[in-house]
Amino acid sequence: MAIERTLSIIKPDAVAKNVIGKIYQRFEDAGLKIVAAKMVWLSEKEAAAFYAVHKERPFFNDLVRFMTSGPVMVQVLEGENAIAKNRELMGATDPKKAAPGTIRADFAESIDANAVHGSDGPDTARTEIAFFFPEMAIYSR
Ligand code: IDP
């Protein structure tokens, strides 16, 4: 299986809940390595640019407001099948529909405040990683 990289964000709700470490543990237990990481407080402009694909959606303004409501933890995860593996660990977008034991089932409150973001495919992963990290800031192991 191919070694992939994916972009993960621990959203403001989960950072405020003090569960960064618990979520990191799940990545590591699943065999994903954290090869780049930083805490950032996104500006409105940055959040809108990151979620530009959703700009026509009715929830776009709420999403930008939420993503700028506090600091987020951004990381690049690397490992076999990292993109799908991370999506599996995250669970469904709506925590009420997320499988038991997933990050969203355990730590998220609602479809807006849903604890984590993860790239949904190889192209998105490349673009999203480049949005936050230059190649030289990624320490592949
Ligand atoms: P994903 O994060 O599971 O990939 P997307 O459909 O890409 O889900 O949506 C991006 C983010 O937009 C979601 O994580 C969630 O925070 C927010 N979002 C998606 N759908 C809704 C909705 O119906 N109401 C409010 N927020 C939503």
From TrEMBL:
<feature type="binding site">
    <location>
        <position position="59"/>
    </location>
    <ligand>
        <name>ATP</name>
    </ligand>
</feature>
<keyword id="KW-0808">Transferase</keyword>
<keyword id="KW-0479">Metal-binding</keyword>
<comment type="similarity">
    <text>Belongs to the NDK family.</text>
</comment>
<feature type="binding site">
    <location>
        <position position="11"/>
    </location>
    <ligand>
        <name>ATP</name>
    </ligand>
</feature>
<dbReference type="InterPro" id="IPR036850">
    <property type="entry name" value="NDK-like_dom_sf"/>
</dbReference>
<dbReference type="InterPro" id="IPR001564">
    <property type="entry name" value="Nucleoside_diP_kinase"/>
</dbReference>
<dbReference type="GO" id="GO:0006183">
    <property type="term" value="P:GTP biosynthetic process"/>
</dbReference>
<comment type="function">
    <text>Major role in the synthesis of nucleoside triphosphates other than ATP. The ATP gamma phosphate is transferred to the NDP beta phosphate via a ping-pong mechanism, using a phosphorylated active-site intermediate.</text>
</comment>
<dbReference type="Pfam" id="PF00334">
    <property type="entry name" value="NDK"/>
</dbReference>
<keyword id="KW-0597">Phosphoprotein</keyword>
<dbReference type="GO" id="GO:0005737">
    <property type="term" value="C:cytoplasm"/>
</dbReference>
<keyword id="KW-0418">Kinase</keyword>
<dbReference type="GO" id="GO:0046872">
    <property type="term" value="F:metal ion binding"/>
</dbReference>
<comment type="subunit">
    <text>Homotetramer.</text>
</comment>
<dbReference type="GO" id="GO:0004550">
    <property type="term" value="F:nucleoside diphosphate kinase activity"/>
</dbReference>
<feature type="binding site">
    <location>
        <position position="87"/>
    </location>
    <ligand>
        <name>ATP</name>
    </ligand>
</feature>
<dbReference type="InterPro" id="IPR034907">
    <property type="entry name" value="NDK-like_dom"/>
</dbReference>
<keyword id="KW-0546">Nucleotide metabolism</keyword>
<protein>
    <recommendedName>
        <fullName>Nucleoside diphosphate kinase</fullName>
        <ecNumber>2.7.4.6</ecNumber>
    </recommendedName>
</protein>
<feature type="binding site">
    <location>
        <position position="93"/>
    </location>
    <ligand>
        <name>ATP</name>
    </ligand>
</feature>
<keyword id="KW-0460">Magnesium</keyword>
<feature type="binding site">
    <location>
        <position position="104"/>
    </location>
    <ligand>
        <name>ATP</name>
    </ligand>
</feature>
<feature type="binding site">
    <location>
        <position position="114"/>
    </location>
    <ligand>
        <name>ATP</name>
    </ligand>
</feature>
<dbReference type="GO" id="GO:0006241">
    <property type="term" value="P:CTP biosynthetic process"/>
</dbReference>
<dbReference type="InterPro" id="IPR023005">
    <property type="entry name" value="Nucleoside_diP_kinase_AS"/>
</dbReference>
<dbReference type="GO" id="GO:0006228">
    <property type="term" value="P:UTP biosynthetic process"/>
</dbReference>
<keyword id="KW-0963">Cytoplasm</keyword>
<keyword id="KW-0067">ATP-binding</keyword>
<dbReference type="GO" id="GO:0005524">
    <property type="term" value="F:ATP binding"/>
</dbReference>
<feature type="domain" description="Nucleoside diphosphate kinase-like">
    <location>
        <begin position="3"/>
        <end position="140"/>
    </location>
</feature>
<feature type="active site" description="Pros-phosphohistidine intermediate">
    <location>
        <position position="117"/>
    </location>
</feature>
<keyword id="KW-0547">Nucleotide-binding</keyword>
